[in-house]
Design brief:
- By secondary structure, this protein is an alpha+beta fold.
- The chain folds into two domains: 51 residues; 52 residues, no CATH class.
- Helix content is 49%, strand content 18%.
- The protein has a three-stranded antiparallel β-sheet with strand order 2-1-3, with helices on one face.
- The longest helix is centred in the C-terminal third of the chain and has 25 residues.
- The relative contact order is 0.10.
Length: 118
């Protein structure tokens, strides 16, 4: 979320400066008005490469969970994972092969399982 530096006047007529996190300039002005401030100046701060790096969140938890589950499934299926270094392409290929085998198996089970009558 962008950070804005503001200059404002409070209800007592005193000049105040500071920063506010907001999605846009208009929402920043709205937040400051809610605090009883009259905005005189508002400038969006440019992020330095260091602050961009520090604010990077990395891989989402849901992706880590999904990848861990896929890896566990591959290991339990007997795919060779340890003992060699696999490239990302080899891992992706193994996942695709495994997923297509699982889909094929489920489709064949669906064809042989009678559907419930209503």
């Amino acid at each position: 979320m962008p950070i804005f530096t503001y200059t404002a006047i409070d209800n007592a007529g005193n000049k105040r400066t500071g920063t506010v996190d907001a999605r846009s300039q208009s929402s920043a002005v709205g937040l400051l008005k809610e605090q009883g401030l009259f905005v005189v100046g508002l400038v969006e701060q440019k992020e330095s490469p260091v602050s961009q790096f520090l604010s990077f969140r990395g891989v989402p938890d849901t992706e880590i969970v999904a990848s861990t589950r896929q890896l566990a499934t591959m290991i339990s299926a007997g795919l060779p994972i340890s003992g060699q270094t696999l490239s990302p392409v080899q891992i992706a290929g193994s996942i695709l092969i495994f997923c297509s085998l699982v889909i094929a198996q489920r489709l064949s089970e669906a064809r042989t399982t009678p559907s419930p009558r209503m």
